[in-house]
């Protein structure tokens, strides 16, 4: 089927989903078995306990994969997820360092960009049509946001995208943990009200920025809000007493920087598109969506309100009171 690159989508055509774009195929299944490799000296990369690469050379290793080469072709798992190993390459440009997370859409891996010499996060989408189509929509939204978000302070920045072995891969800047992950690792202790106020200000500014572009996020939740930095500080938490604490204090973590960015635009919708379907994760879903009354920009604001209440009182929901 003939395809063409679409530079800009007029609003009247934005509801024609899915959008087709030319595939940038980096790798295809080998048509024939690879030829035998004669004995030679190869350097094999291994990762030690400290996470730093070590290199061991051997003349008895056949068919070694060079650092800038592609790994052997493997079938996807039963759910369509890409199967990889730490230390392998995702195209010659990106080397996989660790797995950062997994969701219904696919997986997120931390990679080293051999060209730019920087760490990036790559979203590897499942090789299923509906998720591939959603990924192409997300790419269009990310590129539109990047053109208007001067300085990249509101939304995560897209670095690149490509189609690798039937998986759409989206390259992002490397950010810190999500608000949900930070809370979870902090035993779901609530944030101070001043920090919540600052997070709310940034969140409202980011949502207003999207609404000015006639975009509705539709899936705002703590999992889709990332701290820019992973650094944190330990502070005493006098609100909760510990049986093992003699002085009555209890320590909790707080982010060192309050800067945040929005992520996950796979469900983002234009204002004029069909709004008859259900949106938002259940805990952050607006009443008009639940009642089937139709929804628009306010559904994002309802989600923001739910998030701010959760950040203030999350510990009351998750922590078991002492007997």
Automatic annotation (TrEMBL):
PANTHER family for this protein: SERINE/THREONINE-PROTEIN KINASE DOA-RELATED, SERINE_THREONINE-PROTEIN KINASE AFC1
GO MF terms held by the record: ATP binding; protein serine/threonine kinase activity
Keywords, alphabetical: ATP-binding, Kinase, Nucleotide-binding, Serine/threonine-protein kinase, Transferase
SUPFAM superfamilies to which the protein is assigned, alphabetical: Protein kinase-like (PK-like) (SSF56112)
Alphabetical list of InterPro entries matching this protein: CLK_kinases, Kinase-like_dom_sf, Prot_kinase_dom, Ser/Thr_kinase_AS
Stretch list, region Disordered: 1-28
Gene3D superfamilies: Phosphorylase Kinase, domain 1, Transferase(Phosphotransferase) domain 1
Domain (Protein kinase) ranges: 94-323
Transmembrane stretches, start-end: none
SMART domains in the cross-refs: S_TKc (SM00220)
Name of the protein: Protein kinase domain-containing protein
């Amino acid at each position: 089927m003939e395809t063409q690159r679409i530079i800009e989508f007029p609003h009247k055509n934005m509801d024609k989903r899915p959008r087709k774009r030319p595939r940038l195929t980096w790798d295809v299944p080998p048509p024939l078995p690879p030829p035998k490799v004669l004995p030679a000296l190869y350097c094999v990369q291994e990762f030690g306990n400290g996470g730093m690469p070590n290199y061991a050379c051997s003349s008895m290793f056949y068919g070694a994969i060079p650092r800038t080469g592609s790994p052997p072709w493997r079938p996807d798992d039963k759910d369509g997820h890409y199967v990889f190993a730490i230390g392998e390459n995702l195209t010659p440009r990106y080397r996989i360092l660790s797995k950062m997370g997994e969701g219904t859409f696919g997986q997120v891996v931390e990679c080293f960009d051999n060209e730019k010499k920087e760490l990036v996060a790559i979203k590897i989408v499942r090789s299923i049509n509906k998720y591939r189509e959603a990924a192409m929509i997300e790419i269009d939204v990310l590129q539109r946001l990047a053109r208007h978000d001067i300085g990249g302070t509101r939304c995560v920045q897209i670095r690149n995208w490509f189609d690798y072995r039937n998986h759409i891969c989206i390259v992002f800047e490397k950010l810190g943990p999500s608000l949900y992950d930070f809370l979870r690792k902090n035993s779901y202790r609530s944030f101070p009200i001043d920090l919540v106020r600052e997070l709310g200000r940034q969140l409202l500014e980011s949502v207003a920025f999207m609404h000015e572009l006639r975009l509705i996020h539709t899936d705002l939740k703590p999992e889709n809000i990332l701290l820019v930095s992973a650094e944190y500080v330990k502070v005493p938490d006098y609100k909760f007493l510990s049986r093992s604490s003699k002085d009555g204090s209890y320590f909790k973590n707080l982010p060192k920087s309050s800067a945040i960015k929005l992520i996950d635009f796979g469900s983002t919708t234009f204002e004029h598109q069909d709004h008859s379907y259900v949106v938002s994760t259940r805990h952050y879903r607006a009443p008009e969506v639940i009642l089937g009354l139709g929804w628009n920009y306010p559904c994002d604001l309802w989600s923001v309100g739910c998030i701010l209440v959760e950040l203030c009182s999350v510990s009351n929901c998750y922590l078991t009171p002492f007997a």
